[in-house]
Amino acid sequence: MEFPDLGGHCHKTSCKQLDYLPFKCSYCKNAFCHEHSKPQDHDCPSAPQGDGARVPTCPICNAPVPVNKGEDPNIRMERHIANDCRPAPKTTSTKPFNSCSVQNCKQRVAVKLLCSGCGKNYCIKHRLEVDHMCEKVKSQNRATSISRLTGNSSGKNSGDSTTTTSNHMKPKLTVKNWMNKLFNRK
Predict the structure, then answer these.
(1) Average pLDDT, stretch 170-185?
(2) Which domains does the chain have, with CATH numbers?
(3) Contact, 95 vs 110, CB < 8 A?
(4) Is the model's pLDDT at 56 over the cut of 50?
């Protein structure tokens, strides 16, 4: 044996097995092998009576109902239900869900995605102003189209020869126009 000081023998007199990682009992503080590690396995004199016994829980209020030694748990439970039992309060979901503000969209998300234009909450699919037909975008499009009309009808350029722009403005690049341009659709 290379490491004579490593580990320890099981403290149970009938076992005395050499264990390299012995368990220490939390009550009697002696070292035991894996087979005798629990207090009931090595008949621990320091362990309290009823150690490891389960306490029944009330099915109505989910509170533990202590039962004295020798007492019938069914009778004790009936007494608890008749006298002390109060139903547990109903809990609501702890996860906040935010539904999309688009009319027929039923999507719900855990994170609020508020539009900077209208201030409403939207899902991932409708989060962009163009996707949910935001009132801000509609009013901006109306204003730009009116300014284009008034700009074109007001007259010609100032006659400056250094500018290379034409008399009319380029149309605003929208998602739809960009997709059409990308896939060469007309």
Answers:
(1) 74
(2) 1-47 (4.10.1110.10), 96-146 (4.10.1110.10)
(3) yes
(4) yes
Of residues 79, 77, 83, 125, the one with CA closest to residue 101: 125
Tens-place pLDDT, residues 82-140: 987 887 666 665 555 788 888 888 888 888 888 888 888 888 888 888 888 888 777 77
Residue 12 burial class via C-beta count within 10 angstroms: exposed 0-12, middle 13-18, buried 19 and up: middle
Please give, one letter per residue, the 3-state secondary structure of the chain: CCCCCCCEECCCCCCCCEECCCEECCCCCCEECHHHCCCCCCCCCCCCCCCCCCCCECCCCCCECCCCCCCCHHHHHHHHHHHCCCCCCCCCCCCCCEECCCCCCCCEECCCCECCCCCCECCCCCCCCCCCCCHHHHHHHHHHHHHHHHHHHCCCCCCCCCCCCCCCCCCCCCHHHHHHHHCCCC
pLDDT at 91: 65
pTM of the model: 0.30
Task: Please measure the distance between the N-terminal and C-terminal CA atoms of the chain and give it in whole angstroms.
Answer: 87
> What pLDDT does 39 receive?
85
